[in-house]
Design a protein that fits this description.
Elements: H1 2-8, E1 12-15, H2 22-27, H3 30-50, E2 53-59, H4 82-101, E3 105-110, E4 112-114, H5 123-132, E5 137-140, E6 146-151, H6 152-165, E7 171-174, E8 179-181, H7 182-193, E9 200-203, H8 218-224, H9 232-245, H10 247-250
Parallel strand pairs: 1-2, 2-3, 3-7, 4-6, 5-9
Antiparallel strand pairs: 6-8
Helix pairs in contact: 1-3, 3-4, 5-7, 5-9
Length: 265
């Protein structure tokens, strides 16, 4: 009833709500099923009667690990983690409501976000907060896993364009073409912060750790006129400055959040 009331008062729904930390999905997938699948089902059951637009925020992880190619919107699903499987399931559920009930739904898939206010369980803020405390920074495996990084403001701009101009029953990939391996990211952060690389500590790799994600975002660029405005170096410096000037926001985090192998928690 609360969800119905909230949706009745809005023009459209942009669904960011999700459990998103892959490591935790390995130790307990149930919250991910509840939020990422059942939560989407709850939204769809309301929206099929109201006919309001849904923009659903998905992920590049639905396509699994890629060798050298970049996945376009029609690339086959191949999720590797419980988290990615729930996000792929949500997309399939949305598609079924589009076909069956003529719902106005659009899906956006994005690469790895970074920027101010990101919860410190994620790689970049975790590295910043640990380095600031002069604590060891865990690197999974050999640190060569590759991700494509996009500044949060650029992602928000893409979502706004999709909400306002995106075609119904379509999906749009969003990426910034900043493919970097995890070890390089960590070294860049330490360099900007003036910290020693001796803080780096190699730990065992995460189970099922995908090697590389990459998206082809030519569709949103051509159809909606979206483009990246923040280069990685500037975005990273902005992010580091924000965390260092807002230590009150993260200083009381529990050790569990900053654990070197959180999938074991």
């Amino acid at each position: 009833n609360l969800m119905k009331k909230l949706i009745s008062d809005c023009d459209a729904v942009v669904n960011f709500a999700a459990q998103s930390f892959v490591d935790r999905s390995i130790s307990d997938a149930n919250p991910f099923l509840e939020s990422n699948v059942k939560g989407v089902f709850t939204l769809l059951e309301i929206l099929r009667f109201t006919k309001k637009r849904l923009v659903h925020i998905s992920t590049d992880e639905v396509f699994g690990s890629l060798k050298s190619e970049s996945a376009n919107e029609n690339y086959k699903f191949n999720p590797s983690s419980p988290y990615a499987a729930t996000k792929a399931s949500a997309e399939l559920l949305i598609n079924s409501y589009v076909v069956t009930y003529d719902c106005d739904c659009v899906i956006t898939r994005c690469t790895n976000n970074y920027g101010p206010r990101q919860f410190p369980e994620k790689l970049i803020p975790k590295t910043i907060t640990l380095a600031n405390k002069r604590k060891k920074i865990p690197v999974y495996g050999n640190g060569k896993n590759i991700r494509d990084w996009i500044f949060v403001d650029d992602h928000c701009d893409a979502i706004t364009k999709i909400l306002m101009k995106g075609k119904s029953w379509q999906s749009y990939n969003v990426s910034a073409n900043n493919e970097l391996d995890n070890l390089t990211i960590i070294k860049k952060i330490l360099s900007v912060m003036g910290k020693s690389a001796d803080l780096i500590e190699f730990v065992e790799d995460r189970p099922g750790h995908d090697f590389r994600y990459s998206l082809d975002s030519s569709k949103i660029k051509k159809q909606l006129g979206w483009s990246v405005k923040t280069d990685f170096e500037n975005g990273l410096e902005k992010t580091i400055r924000w965390y260092l000037s807002h230590s009150d926001w993260w200083k009381n985090l529990s050790k569990k959040i900053l654990n070197a192998t959180p999938w074991k928690n």
